Automatic annotation (TrEMBL):
<feature type="binding site">
    <location>
        <position position="317"/>
    </location>
    <ligand>
        <name>carbamoyl phosphate</name>
    </ligand>
</feature>
<dbReference type="InterPro" id="IPR002292">
    <property type="entry name" value="Orn/put_carbamltrans"/>
</dbReference>
<protein>
    <recommendedName>
        <fullName>Ornithine carbamoyltransferase</fullName>
        <ecNumber>2.1.3.3</ecNumber>
    </recommendedName>
</protein>
<feature type="domain" description="Aspartate/ornithine carbamoyltransferase carbamoyl-P binding">
    <location>
        <begin position="8"/>
        <end position="148"/>
    </location>
</feature>
<feature type="binding site">
    <location>
        <position position="231"/>
    </location>
    <ligand>
        <name>L-ornithine</name>
    </ligand>
</feature>
<dbReference type="InterPro" id="IPR006131">
    <property type="entry name" value="Asp_carbamoyltransf_Asp/Orn-bd"/>
</dbReference>
<feature type="binding site">
    <location>
        <begin position="57"/>
        <end position="60"/>
    </location>
    <ligand>
        <name>carbamoyl phosphate</name>
    </ligand>
</feature>
<feature type="binding site">
    <location>
        <position position="167"/>
    </location>
    <ligand>
        <name>L-ornithine</name>
    </ligand>
</feature>
<feature type="binding site">
    <location>
        <position position="108"/>
    </location>
    <ligand>
        <name>carbamoyl phosphate</name>
    </ligand>
</feature>
<feature type="binding site">
    <location>
        <begin position="235"/>
        <end position="236"/>
    </location>
    <ligand>
        <name>L-ornithine</name>
    </ligand>
</feature>
<dbReference type="InterPro" id="IPR024904">
    <property type="entry name" value="OTCase_ArgI"/>
</dbReference>
<feature type="binding site">
    <location>
        <begin position="272"/>
        <end position="273"/>
    </location>
    <ligand>
        <name>carbamoyl phosphate</name>
    </ligand>
</feature>
<dbReference type="InterPro" id="IPR036901">
    <property type="entry name" value="Asp/Orn_carbamoylTrfase_sf"/>
</dbReference>
<keyword id="KW-0963">Cytoplasm</keyword>
<dbReference type="GO" id="GO:0004585">
    <property type="term" value="F:ornithine carbamoyltransferase activity"/>
</dbReference>
<keyword id="KW-0808">Transferase</keyword>
<dbReference type="Pfam" id="PF00185">
    <property type="entry name" value="OTCace"/>
</dbReference>
Amino acid sequence: MTSIFQGKSFLKENDFKKEELLYLIDFAAHLKDLKQQNISHKYLAGKNIALLFEKTSTRTRAAFTTAAIDLGAHPEYLGKNDIQLGKKESVEDTAKVLGSMFDGIEYRGFSQKTVEALAEYSGVPVWNGLTDEWHPTQMLADFLTIKEHFGKLEGLTLAYVGDGRNNVANSLLITSAILGINISIVTPEKLFPENDLIVMAEEYAKASKGNVLITDDIDQGVAQADIIYTDVWVSMGEEETFKERIELLLPYQVNQELMMKTQKNETIFLHCLPAFHDLETEVAKETKKKYGLKEMEVTDEVFRGKNALQFQQAENRMHTIKAVMAATLGNLFIPKA
Ligand code: CP
Ligand code: NVA
């Protein structure tokens, strides 16, 4: 008997139902436990995994690599300048070739269409490691971290404060709505999510009894927040928007004053990373020179505060990516929830 996950791709959050997402989160917690106890879990022994990266990455690349090795598989990194994809060979042809040699493919890049075409033509499971539209593997790590902290998911409120139209905002909006977490996207009106996404989130929220709030009002948006989440103001590939984004988003910086606006006793902070919270990067130094800012989407004080769980969240990328690969590629029997 095969499992409900076997052979499936993970291209966007709603490829899986609520119960399936919850299963993957709990399975990741189990795999984390095995790793901590040094118990072998080589569910993918003998498999080959291609890691395609058109955009740069620390966490996603490291997580797929170490997860694959822990599972007994061989990961092979194929960077933007290493292969013919897009320049000399179509996505369809590349997918057919890779699918004949690799058992699974991870793709990080610009276009959602590319990851979908890879899945269509390769004949093997494909995992989206971030596109301009979605960041699904990030979501599993985020909600595992939230569950580890609060012991539950349903009924919590997550306020995402920042660029309301990027991949992480889209993914949080839809995943929260699927899972029954109240979601506020707190962003200037100019950066409100696309209307069809809001409609989709509202549909899911109706079924899960969650709530969706899209607002430019910070006080209203964070009042009930158990989790405050932010991401960079300028995503990869949008570098020309820096000036405009700083002007729009500076009032939405996650600082101590904003954290204090919540009515909850214990609000945690999350960030998918990388973050601009100090002047220790080239981009931050450049931004300081041009715009006089020493911190961007989050202040160093919040980032280093006791409620900031972004490094636990980063570690969880590995455990959750491992769960997705093992479930979709391994011979595990996972019954229908
Ligand atoms: N959060 C995340 O995807 O990080 P990387 O860009 O380093 O992979
Ligand atoms: N929104 C960010 C996420 C990075 C993990 C970007 O796309 O650059």
